[in-house]
Design brief:
The complex is a heterodimer of chains A (341) and B (371). Chain A contains 15 helices and four strands. By secondary structure, chain A is mainly alpha-helical. In chain A, strands 1-4 form a two-stranded antiparallel ribbon. Chain A has a two-stranded antiparallel ribbon with strand order 2-3. In chain A, helix 6 packs antiparallel against helix 7 and helix 6 packs antiparallel against helix 12. The longest helix of chain A is centred in the C-terminal third of the chain and has 27 residues. The radius of gyration of chain A is 20 Å and the shape is globular. The two termini of chain A are 24 Å apart. Chain B has a domain of 236 residues. Chain B has a two-stranded antiparallel sheet. The longest helix of chain B has 28 residues. The chains are: A mainly alpha (341), B mainly alpha (371). Chains A and B meet through helix 1, helix 6, helix 7, helix 11 and helix 13 of A and helix 6, helix 9, helix 12, helix 14 and helix 15 of B. Chain B: It is found in: Cell membrane. Chain B: Keywords: Cell membrane, Membrane, Transmembrane, Transmembrane helix. Chain B: It holds the Pfam family BPD_transp_2. Chain B: Its main location: membrane.
C-alpha cells in the first residue's frame, strides 16, 4: 500500500530492509506457486472437458488472445506496484482510449496509424501528470489516481454518451490478422502483449531504471539516501503505467472493435488482482513481471473454465477471483511469516 | 507578514479548507437558482435543495464516517461498496420471500440478517488485517472483488424489487417533517462522536494509527481496536446499504453502492483526515461527504451536462488535495500561508527534492491532533 512505503512507523509495515533481504532466497516462490496452480487448473480442465475440445492448442492460445489487453494493463500495474504505489486509473484510461480511438477513426476520419500514437501519447501524458502531482506535491497515489479514474471516465462521457462502433476496414483487418503458429494462431493483440511482457522483463531486470523501481519500492528512504533519482523514477513509473493502459486500451479496441464510455469499468481491480496473484507484494519492492503473466493466465483460465462448464453464471468469475486472491494473500503471508522466525 | 494572527489561525484550523470549499460550492448555486437556500413546507414535509443534499448524501456520510475510523488506524476499507450490495441484496431477498411484506417483525428480522452479514464481512476484514497482518488494501480487496459476486448470487443476477411500507421508511420515508435517513445519519454520527471524543476510544484509535506496535507495548489492545473499526465500518456500510435499497425499494447486486468506497475515501481525505493514519476528524468527514454531494447537485442545478460530472469531481479532488498539500501551498502562496500552514510538518521550504527536506515530513506524519 502506498502509505506504508512512506512511513516507517505505519502499522503493518512489516517490510523492513532486513526482511526484504531475508526474502531474497524464496522471492521466486510465489511465481512458482502461481505457475503450478495454472498447470493444475489446466490439467483439471483437460480432464473434465477433454471431450468438449479443451485440449485443443487453440484453447490455450485463446487465453492470450482474450486476455492480451489485461496482460498489458497488468504489466503497467506491476511497475507501479513494484515501486510501492498504486494506479486506480487503469480501467478508465483503457475505456478512454477505446472511446478516443473510435471517435477519431469514425467521427474524424483519421487513419488508424495516426490515431495510435495520439492515443498512446495521451495515455502516457495522463500517467505523467499523475506521477508529477504524486511526486511534487506529496499527495497519496491512491487519491491522485482516483482523481485520474474520475477524470478519464468523465472524458469518455464527454466524447460521447453512446458507444461508437468501428467499421473502418483497416482496423478490422488489423483485428482479424492472425499469426499462424502451426498448431493454432495468435492475434496481433496477443503478440503485442507478449512483446510488451518481454520488454518489461528486460527493463525491470536488466536496466538501471528497473533497479530503481525495485529500490524505491523496497524502501523509499534508503533509495533516497543512496542518492537514487527518486522523483524521476516515480514519475516515469506512472508514465509507463499510463502508456501501458493506453496500449491495453488500443488492444481492447481491436478486440471488440468499438468504443464505449463504460468499457473496462473496474479493470484496474483485475489488473491489481493479476499482479497480486502473480506474487508481487503490494507493499512494493518484490515480485516478478513473469508472475503477472501467470496471474493473468490464471484469471483467464477461470473465465474459460466457467465458459466450458456452461451452467455457471458469470458472477462466479468474481467469486472465484476473490477466493484465489484470498488464498494467494494467505500464502504470501504464511511464507513471509515463516521466513521471519 | 500582512496576515493577522486571527486569519492565520483560521486558515490553519483543520476544517477551514473543507468548509471553505463547501461554502463556495453552495454559493455557486445562488446565481443559477436564487431560491437555493429556501426551504419549503409541503404536505408536512420540508423540501429544499439543502434538505435533498443531506438526504441524497446520507449513505455516503454513513460509509465515510465508518471509513474515517478505519483510515485513522492507518488502514483502508475497499470492501464497503460490496458490503452495501450484500446487505441490500440479503435484506430485500428476505423481505420479498415473505407473504406479508409489510409485517414489522419480518422487516426487523430482515434488517437484522442484513446487518449481521455486514458485521461478518467486517469481522473477516478485521481478522485478515489485525490477526493475519495483511495490508488493509489487499485484505479488503478480497471482499471488494468477491462481494459483488456474492451479492449477485443472492439476487440470482436479478434486481429484486419489494413493496414494503415499513422498510421504505428507512431510505425514503419522512419523520417529524424531515427525511428519516437524516435522523439515522445524525444518530450514527452523534454516537460515533460521543464514543470517540467523550471516551478514550478515539485516542486509542489514533494511537493505533500512529504506531500500532508502540500502542501494543503501552498496553493498548491494538488488535482488538483494529477489528473493532473494521466491524464498525462494515456496519455503517450495511446501514447505508439498507438505506440505498430502501430508497429504491430494490436490490441491485451489480450497481448498488458502486464506487461508494472511492467517494467515501475521497470524503475522508477532503475532510482533512490523513491517509497515513494517526488522526481523524469526524466533522471534517461529514463536511467532505457534503462537498461531494453538493458538487453533484451543483452540476445539476447550473445546467452543466451531467456527463461532465466526473470531470468536475476529478477537478475538485485535485484542487482540495492540492490545497491541503503543505508543499503546494508553500510553492503557490509563498510565505503567506506556507510558513505556518504546513501543520508543523514543513517549514515552507521550496527546496522540495532534497532528501533532508523529505525526511522530517515522513517522520512527523503520524501526528496526534485531538480536536
Amino acid at each position: 500500500m502506498s502509505t506504508a512505503t512512506k512511513t516507517p512507523t505505519a502499522p503493518d509495515s512489516r517490510r523492513t530492509p532486513s526482511r526484504a533481504a531475508q526474502l531474497l532466497g524464496d522471492r521466486r516462490l510465489p511465481v512458482v506457486v502461481t505457475a503450478t496452480l495454472f498447470l493444475v487448473m489446466y490439467l483439471v480442465g483437460l480432464g473434465r472437458y477433454q471431450n468438449y475440445g479443451f485440449g485443443e492448442p487453440q484453447v490455450f492460445l485463446n487465453l492470450f488472445i482474450d486476455n492480451g489487453y489485461l496482460l498489458v494493463a497488468a504489466v503497467g500495474a506491476t511497475f507501479v506496484i513494484l515501486s510501492g504505489g498504486i494506479d486506480l486509473s487503469v480501467g478508465s484510461v483503457i475505456g478512454f482510449t477505446t472511446m478516443l480511438t473510435a471517435w477519431l477513426v469514425e467521427k474524424q476520419g483519421l487513419p488508424i496509424l495516426v490515431v495510435i500514437p495520439i492515443a498512446l501519447g495521451v495515455g502516457a501524458f495522463g500517467g505523467f501528470l499523475m506521477g508529477y502531482v504524486i511526486h511534487n506535491f506529496e499527495i497519496q497515489p491512491f487519491i491522485v489516481t482516483l482523481a485520474g479514474l474520475f477524470l478519464f471516465r468523465g472524458l469518455c462521457l464527454i466524447i460521447s454518451k453512446e458507444s461508437i462502433a468501428i467499421d473502418d476496414s483497416s482496423v478490422s483487418s488489423m483485428a482479424q490478422a492472425q499469426a499462424q503458429l502451426g498448431v493454432g494462431f495468435l492475434s496481433i493483440g496477443a503478440i503485442i502483449a507478449l512483446v510488451v511482457l518481454a520488454i518489461a522483463f528486460y527493463v525491470l531486470h536488466y536496466t538501471r531504471f528497473g533497479r530503481r523501481v525495485y529500490a524505491i519500492g523496497g524502501n523509499e528512504q534508503s533509495a533516497l539516501l543512496m542518492g537514487l533519482p527518486q522523483g524521476g523514477t516515480k514519475i516515469a513509473v506512472y508514465t509507463v503505467s499510463g502508456f501501458c493502459s493506453a496500449l491495453a486500451g488500443l488492444l481492447f479496441t481491436l478486440y471488440i472493435q468499438s468504443g464505449d464510455p463504460l468499457h473496462a469499468t473496474g479493470m484496474e481491480l483485475d489488473a491489481i488482482a493479476a499482479v497480486v496473484i502473480g506474487g508481487t507484494l503490494l507493499t512494493g519492492g518484490s515480485g516478478y513481471v513473469v508472475g503477472t503473466l501467470f496471474g493473468v493466465l490464471v484469471l483467464g483460465l477461470i473465465k474459460s473454465i466457467i465458459q466450458f462448464e456452461g451452467t455457471l453464471s458469470s458472477w462466479w468469475t468474481k467469486i472465484a477471483t476473490g477466493v484465489l486472491l484470498c488464498a494467494f494473500i494467505l500464502i504470501q503471508r504464511a511464507m513471509t511469516a515463516r521466513k521471519k522466525t | 507578514m500582512t496576515t493577522t494572527p486571527r486569519w492565520r489561525a483560521l486558515t490553519q484550523h483543520h476544517l477551514f479548507w473543507p468548509v471553505a470549499v463547501l461554502v463556495v460550492l453552495l454559493l455557486i448555486n445562488v446565481p443559477f437558482t436564487p431560491d437555493f437556500f429556501s426551504i419549503k413546507m409541503t404536505d408536512g414535509h420540508l423540501y429544499g435543495s439543502l434538505v435533498s443534499i443531506v438526504l441524497f448524501g446520507s449513505p455516503l456520510i454513513l460509509v465515510a464516517v465508518g471509513m474515517t475510523l478505519v483510515i485513522a488506524t492507518g488502514g483502508i476499507d475497499l470492501s464497503v461498496g460490496a458490503v452495501v450490495a450484500i446487505t441490500g441484496a440479503l435484506t430485500c431477498s428476505y423481505i420479498s420471500d415473505q407473504a406479508d411484506q409489510d409485517s414489522l417483525s419480518g422487516v426487523f428480522l430482515a434488517l437484522g440478517i442484513g446487518l449481521v452479514a455486514a458485521v461478518v464481512c467486517g469481522l473477516w476484514n478485521g481478522f485478515l488485517v489485525a490477526r493475519m497482518g495483511i495490508q488493509p488494501i489487499i485484505a479488503t480487496l478480497i471482499i471488494m472483488v468477491a462481494g459483488r459476486g456474492v451479492a449477485q448470487l443472492i439476487t440470482d443476477g436479478q434486481i429484486i424489487t419489494i413493496n414494503s411500507e415499513p422498510y421504505k421508511l428507512i431510505g425514503g420515508g419522512y419523520w417529524l417533517t424531515l427525511p428519516f435517513s437524516i435522523f439515522v445519519v445524525a444518530a450514527v454520527v452523534a454516537v460515533t462522536v460521543a464514543l470517540t471524543r467523550r471516551t478514550a476510544l478515539g485516542l486509542l484509535v489514533e494511537s493505533v494509527g500512529g504506531n500500532a506496535e508502540a500502542s501494543r507495548l503501552v498496553g493498548i489492545r491494538s488488535m482488538r481496536i483494529k477489528i473493532m473499526v473494521y466491524v464498525f465500518c462494515a456496519l455503517c456500510a450495511g446501514i447505508a446499504g439498507l438505506m440505498i435499497s430502501s430508497n429504491t425499494s430494490a436490490a441491485d447486486g451489480n450497481n448498488a453502492g458502486l464506487w461508494i468506497e472511492l467517494d467515501a475515501i475521497l470524503a475522508v481525505v477532503i475532510g482533512g483526515t490523513s491517509l497515513l493514519g494517526g488522526r481523524f476528524s469526524i466533522g471534517g468527514t461529514v463536511v467532505g461527504a457534503l462537498v461531494i454531494q453538493t458538487l453533484t447537485t451543483t452540476i445539476y442545478t447550473i445546467g452543466v451536462p451531467t456527463q461532465t460530472n466526473l470531470v468536475f469531481k476529478a477537478a475538485v479532488v485535485i484542487v482540495v488535495c492540492l490545497l491541503q498539500s503543505p508543499k503546494f501551498r508553500a510553492k503557490v502562496f509563498g510565505n503567506k500561508f506556507g510558513s505556518g500552514a504546513g501543520s508543523g510538518a514543513k517549514g515552507g521550504g521550496t527546496s522540495a527534492a532534497t532528501p533532508a527536506d523529505t525526511a522530517p515530513t515522513t517522520a512527523a506524519a503520524p501526528k496526534m491532533e485531538v480536536s
